[in-house]
Amino acid sequence: MANMDRAPAIARLLEMAVRSAYVRSGADERHLTDWPVLRFLVQAGNEARTRAGLQRFLGVDDKACAAIVDRLLMSGLVCEAAERRLDITQAGRDILTHDPSLRLAAAITTLTPNLQSSLVAGLEAVLASLSHPEVRRH
């Protein structure tokens, strides 16, 4: 089978793997953007944990970032602290115990080192390709 013929099937497999990690971790009740935001707030330094820092991290515009932050503030997973710094609340930390990336990571650890290396190389190439504007939806 030619690469172009296999590409849709591979894309569906990748989508199914990610969806399975979300559903089986109970994460499907959260908005997709919540997870990287919560992880960012745990890992980023004080200087970066602002709306502007989050906007840069997510690569979204002001309006989209404001909507994400407002939703997380209203749900009690994030709070605004001194100097407009964003902090994750205890409820946000509790939610992170169900982070779907943990389930994916556990599945990846079952792969041999060679398969892990191949997966990394393939996903890095896909991400690089997606960042080019000439990659269009068919």
Describe this structure in words.
With 138 residues, the chain is mostly helical. Helix content is 64%, strand content 4%. It is built from seven helices and two strands, in the order H-H-H-H-E-E-H-H-H. It has helices at residues 3-24, 34-43, 51-58, 62-74, 90-96, 100-109, 113-130; strands at residues 78-80, 86-88. Strands 1-2 form a two-stranded antiparallel ribbon. A hairpin with a 5-residue loop joins strand 1 and strand 2 (86-88). Helix 3 (51-58) crosses helix 4 (62-74). The longest helix is centred in the N-terminal third of the chain and has 22 residues, at 3-24.
Keywords for this entry:
mainly alpha; two-stranded antiparallel sheet; 138 residues
Short description:
With about 140 residues, the protein is mainly α. It is built from seven helices and two strands.
Q: Residue-averaged pLDDT, rounded?
A: 87
Total beta-strand segments: 2
Overall 3D form: globular
* Strand/helix succession: HHHHEEHHH
The side-by-side strand order for the widest beta sheet comes to 1-2
Q: What is the CA-atom radius of gyration, in angstroms?
A: 17 Å
Major sheet details: 2 strands, antiparallel
Q: Would you identify the regions where 5 or more consecutive residues have pLDDT less than 50?
A: none
Helix content: 55-70%
Count of helices?
A: 7
Strand percent estimate? under 5%
Euclidean distance between termini CA atoms: 19 Å
Class by alpha and beta content: mainly alpha
